[in-house]
Amino acid sequence: MTGERARTVWIGAGGALGSIALWWIAAATVLSAFQIPTPPEVVEVFHERGFGYYERVFSITLAESARGYVVGVVLALATAMLVLLVPILEPLVMQFAVITYCLPIVVLAPILITVHEIPEKGGLSPTAIDLAAVSVFFTTVVGAVLGFRAADRSTLDVVEVYGGSRFQQFRRVRLVSALPALFSTLQIAAPAAFLGALLGEYFDRHLEIGVGPSLILSQNNRETALAWSLGIGCAVVSGLAYVVLGLIGRAIAPWSKGVTP
Questions:
Q1: CB-CB neighbours of 172 under 10 Å
Q2: On the CB side of 8, how many CA atoms lie within 13 Å of its CA?
Q3: Which among 139, 92, 131, 104 is positioned nearest to 115, based on CA atoms?
Q4: How many CB atoms lie within 10 A of CB 83?
Q5: Eight-state DSSP code of residue 207
Q6: From the centroid of its chain, how far is CA 31?
Q7: Residues contacting residue 113 through CB under 8 Å, at least 6 positions apart
Q8: Does the model's pTM come out above 0.85?
Q9: CA separation for the pair 12, 225 (Å, rounded)
Q10: CB under 8 Å to 211, separation ≥6 — which residues?
Q11: Angle value at C-alpha 51, between 50 and 52, nearest 5 degrees
Q12: Measured between alpha carbons, how far is residue 91 from residues 80, 84, 94 in Å?
């Protein structure tokens, strides 16, 4: 492990421990009247519910977010490619992307719930999948377009001089040069997809299993420690997805960190 990476790990660990200590002190003192659970109380809930409970509820939300993530990313990359290959469509395409970003979830979710069939017991929520896809579309389109346009102009000219088409320029130059930016965009999209799926579950009251329904039950039953445990689980899952995609990006495009492939 390099010195810079070790320093980053130590800073991250110190920040996490400091946050837990601050949370513990605040929950036991100034915030004690607001029913904020302490870390031991949250750990106790984890132990009481067991790993099986969290695996069951998170597996549903993860499946929804994964499907929405794939759909949203594929559509966004196809849209970005269309902008590069047919530049005249850029204003229309980018306006559409902005509209998807500006759509309020509280308005879109009820429409999707009405359009889709009621989820089966133990099944996935189509509304959650759709909101996960919408949540990643705009940022992925913008990041992909910027990454594709970061290609070296002289290299593109060489391909053109040798008779290469726009598609060959894209495949041989733009795609390779855009990989670091693309993976950074995909990293940001992963937590966004999970949040979109979670919001879809929260609005779709027909769903019986998932993080969203569990949060609603904990809210109705005033089980604050359970709600906190679910929230921490969401943070951990989103963080892991972000880290894993970063590692994959570093392995596929090592030059993004100044490493010779």
A1: 16
A2: 5
A3: 131
A4: 21
A5: -
A6: 31
A7: 127, 203, 204, 206
A8: no
A9: 25
A10: 57, 58, 60, 61, 198, 201, 230, 233, 234
A11: 90
A12: 12, 12, 5
Taken as a whole, the chain contains a residue count of 261
Burial of 80 (0-12, 13-18, 19+ CB in 10 A): buried
Which of 37-51, 68-82, 145-159, 221-235 bottoms out in mean pLDDT, i.e. has the lowest?
145-159
Could you give the residue ranges of the DSSP H alpha helices within the chain? 3-28, 39-85, 90-102, 105-115, 126-148, 153-161, 166-169, 175-203, 211-220, 224-252
DSSP structural state of residue 37:
P
| Token couple for 211 | 């993080």
DSSP annotation of 33 reads G
What letter represents residue 243's amino acid? V
Report how far apart, in Å, the C-alpha atoms of 155 and of each of 106, 132, 191, 258 are. Answer: 46, 37, 35, 20
pLDDT band per the 50, 70, 90 thresholds, residue 91: confident
Task: Please provide residue 35's backbone torsions phi and psi, each rounded to the nearest 5 degrees.
Answer: 60, 40
| DSSP state, residue 209 | S
Rg (CA), the chain: 22
User: In the predicted model, what is the mean pLDDT of residues 148-171?
Assistant: 68
Contact 69, 132 (CB under 8 A): yes
The tokens for 71 are: 């759909």
| Contact indicator for 83, 76 with CB cutoff of 8 Å | no
